[in-house]
Specification:
The chain is mainly beta. It is 6% helix and 39% strand.
Length: 464
Amino acid sequence: MRGAAWLRSAIHLFSSQGPASAPPPHLRRLLQQFPFRSPSASSGSWQRSAAWIAPFSSLQVQARSYPGSGWDRPPKTKRHLYVVLGDHLKKGFEIHKLDIDEDDLDGNSRSTGTMPRCLPEPPVVRVGPPIIGVHMQFAALGSSIIAIGPCTEGTPPVCKGVTVIYNTKTAELAASNLLPKGLFFGDGCDLAVAVGNKLYAFESYSKNFECPDCTVCFPGGLHCLRVADHPKAAAAADDLRWKWRPLPNLPRFSWSWNNSSPPQLPFHAQSITAHTVHPRGRTIFVSAGGWKVDVGTFAYGTRSGKWKRCGDWVLPFRGPTHYDINLDAWVGLHHLEASNNWCNGSETINGHLCACCVTSAACASHQPPEWKVSRETLFQEDPDWRRISVQLVYMVERREYCLVEHLRQVEEGVIKMKYVLRLTFFLVKYGEDGELITTMAQRPARLYEVPAYDESFDTKAFWM
């Protein structure tokens, strides 16, 4: 079998290079001894255009079909940077697929990142009203980009919330109005964290929740979206405590369905400043606060389904973090010491990177983990541009990071309606004295022109 697999790979290599690169006669004769189905020459792709989600329906759209080999396992998929932008004028969202290896080789200023370039058109996905609202939360789960939130005003009563799933491998787009109630009331979902095959969604408000003790009351709960390899796959041991309801048109995806009493959060979801996941995928750490409760760090066991307060310390990050196996540490944007830990936005970060030692819930209860902050700042301050939002993306197989900055032009103190996206690539390592060092990568920074900014939405980026 190993010989046959090698020969199949060989004939595929020759066939992919065209008739001029046909295998030699001795290899062709040897291949005849191993019958197999050759690649289909009829398979192809068709031009896809940006698709708008049809209103008030559960649908599935095939945006693009890719040619397959017809035999053997498919080749390894190249990863891209997917950027989610809010369009203020169209009141919708766009997902753009960026190839960071594709660069201009003509030597002009565009290749150095000093001149904005256009985003690839059309976007792989464009969604907007009336089926999708402005208060949406985007997250990545496996090979899918998932958006959850309330529908827009004026939609039928049956459509109050929506779950939108875009598969980056198959380019399939699907939407369903199945969504737990707590995720479309109020501000909906404040945070979504992927752990394994589950997406944990933190709701900020639930109409169905009534706390019997008003002295420690947090009107929010925890929900979970699960994806299975097969709709009838056996549930894992930690799935049995949830009640699941599959999406009608996507049975592999199921929402936890405990609307009457979702698992209560021991903090206010809108006060979350940082979060991270243990490399083993069994614990979610969240730094947050709440009414009559001091700000601190909490740990959620994905197997036990229980929360634990680790202490009065907070993670030294703003936003999400990434586990770097080379550093054996969580890496993220450093969170400045602020008197008001509930403030949001990029005003509490200064572009310095932070690496924090990985800890467990048990160890964190005794003392906070140690961390280091880089001396260099990743921000390039320019008086002509104001920073709106910023996100750190880890390209894990490249051991490389990308800083995604959303900027707005300012001319002589006057804010202009011109926006750009700046991508900066860099590496992270420890120095000889154990200090945290950031070095610029070989590829230059990039600037992209982007649509008008929607103030209610922060730009999201995913490496997939």
